[in-house]
Design brief:
The complex is a heterodimer.
Chain A lengths: L9 E8 L4 E8 L2 H8 L6 H8 L7 E5 L4 E7 L19 H4 L5
Chain B lengths: L7 E6 L10 H9 L4 E7 L6 H4 L7 H18 L3 E8 L3 H18 L5 E5 L1 E2 L1 H9 L3 E3 L8 H6 E7 L3 H8 L4 E4 L6 H9 L4 H11 L14 E6 L2 E6 L8 H7 L9 E4 L2 E4 L4 E4 L5 E4 L2 E4 L4 E20 L2 H4 L2 H20 L6 E8 L18 E9 L2 H17 L19 E10 L3 E4 L8 E4 L6
Parallel strand pairs in B: 1-2, 2-3, 3-8, 4-8
Antiparallel strand pairs in B: 1-9, 4-21, 5-7, 6-20, 7-16, 9-10, 10-14, 11-12, 12-15, 13-14, 16-18, 16-19, 16-20, 17-18
């Protein structure tokens, strides 16, 4: 059987700029069961995000919002917006590594 | 400011961005619902530093003019004010004048007489030195302390106004307010605050409506209509086929904001942690419990962009399976041969220029972060070169041209010819910019950094 990813359990996983210096991502989970998995700190925490996106774990912010079945993650942009090394000016495609994270 | 003892204020936000378009009938409906004010955002930093750095709008004049014509007609017909925030994308003085010029033409064409206020938000580096030296400018994470040289390097600096300069213009009788850089929320909040609506519901409603229909179940159908009163606000889409649900409204607090519970404005902090979202019916939502904590110190955020160099782009494409089988090997060969050839022909080392080689179809978007290991069917090779001037950037791209056309993979014993999508091969992109300011100034007064002019603009 194929592995299940966070994206499989979500209505939508998205990423976007939060101003020119931050990227923010949201996992909109389908239901409370999916939310419990995404919100589980032993599965998804600052270190996991830091490894996925090669940023400093200390700069990662995670917000868990049970009323919306949402987990929201924010971290400073590794590349300045619109600079030579920035390949995603709106940061709209950066959710994919998070969405493809395999759930336990 | 006066409160006029009104019980509620209704705001129509036709779309998330002036020039993005909306169905004309949604405006008719908003007026019929009893809109007290029309507010629309005209800008953003979301598309990058070029628009501020070059002081150029992202939208085209025809699209802005089309939207403004309908909004000016509606506002004039109903006798209500129209507020445009962050004019011209970045809110520079050019941006305000650009929108003001379009408005002046439209008023003449439509035979309308409306009092127009222009609020300028651009700052001179020289004027920011004193506050900087006095310790009144502080960095916002992740940026560090500011120095004078960084201010002086900026081609344009704008200050993000809160509601106060807009409210002041309305108090002075402005029927159309064209604001320079303003917080996304300030243009929607200004009229309601002026009329004495409580800050918590007003700022929360302003955040929810700032992107128009984004907080509805169908963002493509146009804008939203919100009514703020003493205890909260009620929101519905302008299009009757779309709906606001507690989830669609609450979820918009997450959009493009790092912290989903708190949002700083010049005058204080919106706090929605205890907000309650209730469905009134199939398509209207009631929100209560929003708080606003007034700050002891009013602050104004600065935005500034500087030139980092000049860019030239070249693009070719690979379909040959022999190369695609080891695309990473081909890319590292490209790096090695290109840097060698540039040094050999132009005498340039890595300090004189920079480039980014992007393999579209393979890993160009996410680079090393990409989780996929699938072999690509075809790959677009973009070479983006940056140098201190345009001629140098183009020279490097021209040295790269034979490689973009013919570079074989390591173990190919013939020269392939790769696919160029057009001629000429190089595209000069002009100046490249970066945002360098993310700093807050302690305001002397909420309006001191902004200049308001009423009536026709007199050039010269």
């Amino acid at each position: 059987m194929a592995e299940t990813t966070l994206g499989d359990l979500a209505i939508e996983v998205r990423s976007k700029n939060a101003g020119p210096f931050w990227i923010t991502m949201e996992l909109f989970m389908r239901d409370a069961d999916g939310y419990r998995i995404a919100a589980d700190e032993t599965f998804l925490d600052e270190t996991v995000v830091a490894d996925l996106y090669r940023v400093d774990a200390g700069s990662v912010q995670i917000f868990r919002i049970p009323s919306l079945n949402v987990v929201k993650i924010s971290y400073p942009r590794p590349f300045s917006q619109g600079s030579l090394r920035d390949r995603d000016v709106h940061a709209g495609q950066h959710h994919v590594p998070l969405a493809q994270l395999v759930v336990p | 400011m006066t409160s006029d003892n009104v019980e509620s204020v209704s705001i129509m936000v036709p779309s998330g961005m002036l020039g993005a378009g909306f169905p004309e009938e949604t405006i008719t409906r908003g007026i019929a619902l009893g809109a007290d004010v029309i507010a629309v955002d005209g800008g953003s930093t979301d598309s990058g530093p070029h628009y501020l750095g070059a002081s150029k709008p992202k939208t085209t004049a025809a699209a802005v003019s089309r939207d403004l014509r309908l909004l000016l007609r509606a506002a004039a017909g109903a006798g209500i004010p129209l507020i445009v925030g962050s004019c011209g994308t970045s809110g520079t003085d050019d941006g305000v004048d650009w929108v003001a010029g379009i408005v002046a033409d439209l008023l003449a064409e439509e035979g309308l007489s409306m009092k127009v206020a222009r609020i300028y938000s651009e700052q001179r580096a020289a004027d920011l030195k004193n506050p900087l030296e006095a310790g009144r400018i502080r960095p916002l994470p992740p940026l560090g302390d500011l120095d004078v040289a960084t201010l002086e390097d900026c081609t344009h600096i704008v200050a993000m106004m809160g509601h106060e300069p807009i409210a002041e213009a309305l108090s002075s009788g402005a029927q159309v307010v064209l604001a320079g850089r303003a917080t996304d929320t300030a243009n929607a909040a200004a009229y309601a605050l002026l009329k004495g609506m409580p800050a918590g519901p007003t700022w929360h409603a302003a955040k929810i409506v700032e992107c128009g229909g984004q907080c509805t179940t169908n963002p493509r159908t146009g804008g939203v209509f919100a009514t703020i009163d003493r205890t909260g606000f009620t929101i519905e889409p302008l299009d009757e086929s779309a709906a606001c649900t507690p989830i669609s409204v609450a979820a918009h607090m997450l959009y493009e904001t790092a912290n989903p519970f708190q949002m700083r404005e010049p005058d204080g902090t919106l706090d929605v942690r205890d907000a309650v979202y209730t469905a009134l019916d199939e398509r209207r939502v009631r929100v209560e419990g929003s708080l606003f904590h007034h700050a002891e110190q009013h602050t104004i955020k600065l935005e500034g962009a500087r030139i980092t160099g000049y860019e030239t782009m070249s693009f070719s494409a690979i379909r040959d399976p022999l190369i695609l089988a080891d695309i990473e090997g081909w890319a590292s060969l490209m790096h090695a041969v290109l840097t060698h050839r540039v040094e050999q022909t132009l005498g340039l080392t890595g300090e004189d220029y920079a480039y980014d080689l992007r393999l579209y179809g393979y890993n160009a978007v996410l680079g090393d972060l990409d989780p996929s290991t699938e072999p690509p069917r075809e790959v677009g090779v973009m070479l983006l070169v940056r140098a201190a001037d345009q001629a140098l950037a183009t020279a490097v791209a021209k040295v790269a041209n034979p490689l973009m056309l013919h570079l074989p993979a390591q173990d190919m014993d013939y020269l392939p010819s790769l696919a160029f999508p057009g001629s000429p091969a190089e595209v000069e992109r002009g100046a490249a910019y970066e945002f360098v300011l993310n700093h807050a100034v302690d305001s002397l007064t909420p309006t001191a950094m902004f200049r308001t002019e009423m009536g026709e603009k007199h050039h010269g």
